Amino acid sequence: MNEQEPVPPQFTSQVPPALPPLLGRRLPLGEDPSDRVPISHIFAAIDAILRHPRRVMFQLRQPDAGRLVMAMISASIVCSLIYGLVAGTFSGGPQLWIAPVKIAMGLMISALICLPSLYIFTCLSGSQARLVEVCGMLAGLLLLMTILLIGFAPVAWIFSQSTDSPTWMGTLHLVFWFVATGFGLRFLDAAFSHSNAKSSAGFYTWVAIFVLVAVQMTTALRPIIGTSKTFLPTEKKFFAAYWSECMGANEWQTPGRSRD
User: What is the DSSP string of 62-126?
Assistant: First the structure.
């Protein structure tokens, strides 16, 4: 072949790059470099639980996990107080401090009541998670819930200025609470699945227990939206009976009227 003849093109076989061995499957915690990014302050924890919850799950396995747990609990209390302040603007007056205290109390008491059963079900499922990890998973649930409630707060405020019905406002706040709880439980489910549990039956049993305890707490601490002569109710009621009573009332009360 002389110089005047064109050089025939050379074809080389293009071998596609090897696919990651776990493509399409969930990587174990810590194998993704982004999982190991430290969470140095509470704002980093909020950002992580919204954008990269695996970072939170990984940090809960580290020796200093207790600091992160306390930070998430503190942030949950602050967020619940802010949302409670918005809820208190419906009635105004003493409800501006009563509603925040009751909402924060309700969340924290519900978590404390349900923590032992969560740890027991976690152990029975075959998980090797430590108590501090279980506390961290529950704290992550509360933090994500309250962050979402903060996002709903402007909507709640707009409606609180547009209606005089405590029943309607209570229903709206319950809808926001159920939505926030649903997303919080998604985080808890993901964290539970990374704890090497062999069965999810205990987890779903606990979810039902937690939801029942939390909704009963809304009745035990009533009224949160309306007003009352006493800080806590003097009559014991089951939440289903109380909700039925509120929805079946002939006249919805205005913020100025009291309710036991």
Answer: STTHHHHHHHHHHHHHHHHHHHHHHHHTTT-TTHHHHHHHHHHHHHHHHHHHHHHHHHHHHHHTT
SS3 content of the chain, % helix, strand, coil (to 5): 60, 0, 35
pLDDT confidence of 21, banded at 50, 70, 90? very low
Asked if 50 and 116 touch (Cβ cutoff 8 Å), the reply is no
Max Cα-Cα span within the chain: 106
Residue in the structure block whose two tokens are 């539970």 = 192
Spatial separation of the C-alpha atoms in residues 163 and 159, rounded to whole Å: 6
Report pTM: 0.81
Q: Which two tokens stand for residue 152?
A: 């709903």
Q: Which amino acid is at 70?
A: M
In whole angstroms, what separates CA 126 from the centre of its chain? Answer: 24
Task: List, for residues 108-148, the tens digit of each pLDDT value.
Answer: 999 999 999 999 999 988 888 899 999 999 999 999 999 99
